[in-house]
Write a structure and sequence with these properties.
10 strands, 50% helix, single chain
C-alpha cells in the first residue's frame, strides 16, 4: 500500500535522512524543510569546490602559457602556486607573470579558506556524527527481527516505550519529532526512525516485514487507521494494537487491521476509580509495574507442541520451585481462562500461561514452554 505523498504532510527520516550528505534526491518527500535545506547547503559547498578548483587550475595554466611557459611547466607552476608549497620557479618570470602569480595566490588562499570552513562546518555541526550514527542505526534495525514497532512518542507512546525498555522487549520507535524521542530516551540506547509513521517507506525503515507487533499510538484516530491499514498490508501475521481517542472509531481501526484497540481515556477513568475504591490493589500494581529495584510483570507464555510441559499437571511441573514464577491463570486452546488453576490442571499444547515473575523468571518459564529447558 502506497500513500499519496503529495498531500502536504511534511515528514522526514532523521538519522536515516542524513546518512549521505551528497544524496542528490533533495526533493524526497520524506525530508523535512530543515533537513532539505541542510542537504542543499552541504551539496552546494562540495559542488562549488568540485568546479572551482579545476576552473582556477585551468585559468592558471592558460595564464602561464600566455606568459610563454610550456604547457607542462604552466600546469606545474599553477599547482605549486595553488598549493602554496613554495617550490622554485621553472624559469625567470616577467613582471606580468609575477602579477598573475600574486592574483593566483590570493585566489588559492580563498579556496583553501573556503574548504576549511566547509570541512569545519561538516564536522562541528554534527553532520559527520549523524552520518555515522545513521549508518549504525540502519545496520542494527536491518538485523532486527521479531521486534515491536511503536508509532508515536507522545503522551501515550513514551509510556509504551518505557515498558518495553524496562522488560527488555526489542522495539523501534517512530516519531516525527526527534526532540520528543530524545527527551524520552535520554542516555538510553534506543532504536529510532524519525519520520511519519503513515508513510510506507518509514514503516519499511523500521523493519515492518520482520516485526511481530506494532503499536499505533499517534495523536489522531485517522492516522492510526492509516498505520494499521499499511502495516497489515506489509505483514499479514503482525499483531497490531491501536490507541483510539474517540471510541466510535474503534470499529474502523479493527476493520483497518488492528487486532485490538485501547482507549487511554477509558483505561484512565477505570484506573482512577480503582485507586479510589481499591487503593491497596492499585498500590501493589504500581509497585509491580514501576519499581526500579525489582521489575515484576504479568506475562503470557505460549506452550509449544514440543514442550516437556504438555500433558503434565502443574503439580508435576512444580514451576514455582523451578522457575520462581506464579501461575495466575491458564488460557486453553478454546480461549477460555481458568483463573487460579489448581495443581491437577494439565497443560495442553497451544495453551497460554499467565504468569507473574521477574524478567529472569519469565525467561526461565519460556525455556520450559518452548522445549529449550536444557
Amino acid at each position: 500500500m502506497h500513500r499519496d505523498l503529495g498531500r502536504g504532510r511534511s515528514s522526514r527520516v532523521g538519522y536515516r535522512a542524513v546518512m549521505d550528505p551528497l544524496d542528490l534526491d533533495l526533493d524526497d518527500p520524506l525530508l523535512g524543510m530543515a533537513e532539505r535545506r541542510r542537504r542543499r547547503t552541504n551539496l552546494r559547498r562540495f559542488v562549488v569546490l568540485l568546479w572551482v578548483v579545476p576552473l582556477v587550475a585551468a585559468i592558471g595554466t592558460i595564464g602561464y602559457m600566455i606568459e610563454g611557459l610550456a604547457p607542462i611547466d604552466s600546469l606545474y607552476m599553477t599547482v605549486i602556486t595553488m598549493s602554496t608549497v613554495g617550490f622554485g620557479e621553472v624559469q625567470e618570470l616577467g613582471a606580468g607573470a609575477r602579477v598573475f602569480t600574486i592574483f593566483l595566490i590570493i585566489i588559492s588562499l580563498g579556496i583553501v579558506g573556503y574548504s576549511l570552513t566547509a570541512l569545519a562546518a561538516f564536522l562541528l555541526e554534527g553532520e559527520l556524527h549523524s552520518i555515522i550514527k545513521g549508518r549504525r542505526m540502519d545496520r542494527r534495525i536491518s538485523s532486527l527481527s521479531d521486534h515491536i514497532i511503536v508509532c508515536g512518542c507522545g503522551n501515550t507512546g513514551r509510556w509504551i516505550a518505557e515498558e518495553f525498555h524496562n522488560t527488555s522487549t526489542p522495539f523501534v520507535i517512530i516519531d516525527q519529532d526527534q526532540a520528543a524521542v530524545e527527551s524520552w530516551a535520554g542516555d538510553r540506547d534506543v532504536l529510532e526512525v524519525i519520520g511519519d509513521a503513515t508513510d510506507d517507506v518509514v514503516l519499511e525503515s523500521a523493519g515492518i516485514k520482520r516485526a511481530r507487533g506494532l503499536v499505533a499510538a499517534l495523536a489522531e484516530d485517522k492516522d492510526n487507521v492509516y498505520v494499521a491499514l499499511s502495516a497489515r498490508a506489509f505483514n499479514a501475521e503482525l499483531r497490531i494494537i491501536s490507541r483510539v481517542v474517540d471510541e466510535e472509531n474503534a470499529g474502523k481501526l479493527i476493520r483497518a487491521g488492528a487486532n485490538q484497540v485501547v482507549s487511554p481515556n477509558r483505561i484512565g477513568g477505570l484506573r482512577i476509580a480503582s485507586a479510589m475504591v481499591r487503593p491497596s490493589v492499585v498500590g501493589f500494581l504500581d509497585r509491580m509495574l514501576y519499581s526500579r529495584e525489582s521489575v515484576l510483570r504479568l506475562e503470557d507464555v505460549l506452550i509449544a507442541q514440543n514442550s516437556s510441559m504438555v500433558g503434565r499437571s502443574l503439580r508435576e511441573l512444580d514451576l514455582g520451585r523451578k522457575t520462581g514464577v506464579m501461575i495466575v491463570a491458564v488460557r486453553g486452546p478454546n480461549d477460555e481462562f481458568l483463573f487460579n488453576p489448581g495443581g491437577d490442571n494439565r497443560i495442553d499444547s497451544d495453551s497460554v500461561l499467565v504468569a507473574l515473575g521477574s524478567n529472569e523468571q519469565i525467561a526461565a518459564l519460556r525455556r520450559f514452554a518452548t522445549g529449550r529447558e536444557r
